[in-house]
Amino acid sequence: MSSTEITVDARGHRCPVPTLRLRRALEDAPAGACVRLLADDPLARIDVPHFAAGAGLEIVERSEDSGALSFLVRKPA
Question: What is the pLDDT confidence band of residue 5, given thresholds at 50, 70 and 90?
């Protein structure tokens, strides 16, 4: 795994903002980097995996704690 990890805090924002912020961060990230998205919009459970699959990205880690969602997404090298 790359040592580069970027955090995008999209808590408090509703669909489609968390996924759009994730996409922008991945576009700006170097190849092989990971972006951690923090979101509290329940639709992120659906939107983020759908976006990742369509973009050819890997979700390395996914967790939920009291409604707060965390996704770690790797940009291909």
Answer: very high
Q: How many CB atoms are located within 10 Å of the residue 13 CB?
A: 16
| Beta strands at 5-9 and 34-39: parallel, antiparallel or unpaired | parallel
Fill in the DSSP letter of residue 56: T
Q: Which CATH superfamily is domain 5-74 in?
A: TusA-like domain (3.30.110.40)
Instruction: Report pTM.
Output: 0.92
Cα(51)–Cα(3) distance, integer angstroms:
23
Region of 49 please: left (phi>0), alpha (psi -120 to 50) or beta.
Answer: alpha
